[in-house]
Amino acid sequence: MREHLLRDGSRYILVPPERSWLDISTFEQLCRQSHSHIKSGASDEALICLQAADRLYTGDLFEDIPADYADNTEHDWCWSKRYWLRDMFFKVQRDAARIHRERQDFSTALAHCQKALAIDPLCEIAHEEAMRVFRAQGRREAIDRQYKLYRDSLRHFDDRPQSAWLRQVYRELADAG
């Protein structure tokens, strides 16, 4: 075990044995590959990567560790990685939803949005994509309802100001309907 844990000053670094499979590394690789496929217009390949990444993300990194030990930006030993991975998960959901929306598979697209919103009711990219799905369906009332859900979530969970960017997206989508 000692050969797999190195000390670097006051930090410890995990050095897995050769040919070890780490879900985090695979998740990151799948996210990068899906992004490359999306940029090149290969949506089938992107969707394969996104689905695999979606299956790998089973929750926050070290979510079973009490917040006192992990959610501390001052003693950041996993906080930044935890939130970076969560952000990547939200982008996986958004990108998968977008591909399904473009294929007019609206129920699957909305399921991806809901998956992100179940973890973070304030996830702006999931609210945006859900509104875009409703626009593609011609459902103006659903666009209004989704934006209201976003605003209600802000008041309930955070009470921060509304995103000017999301407000603009809402206006554009609502006006187009």
Give your account of this protein's structure:
- Helices cover 67% and strands 5% of the residues.
- The protein contains 8 helices and 2 strands; from the N terminus they run E-E-H-H-H-H-H-H-H-H.
- It has helices at 23-40, 43-56, 67-70, 79-102, 106-119, 124-136, 140-158, 164-176, and strands at residues 5-8, 11-14.
- A two-stranded antiparallel ribbon has the order 1-2.
- Helix 5 (106-119) runs antiparallel to helix 6.
- The N and C termini lie far apart (61 Å).
Provide a short characterization of the protein structure.
By secondary structure, this protein is mainly alpha-helical. It has helices at 23-40, 43-56, 67-70, 79-102, 106-119, 124-136, 140-158, 164-176; strands spanning 5-8, 11-14.
Categorize the overall geometry: flat
The fraction of residues assigned to DSSP E strands is: under 5%
Low-confidence stretches: none
What would you call the structural class? Answer: mainly alpha
Number of helices: 8
Key phrases:
5% strand; 8 helices; 177 residues; flat
SSE arrangement:
Layout: E1 5-8, E2 11-14, H1 23-40, H2 43-56, H3 67-70, H4 79-102, H5 106-119, H6 124-136, H7 140-158, H8 164-176
Antiparallel strand pairs: 1-2
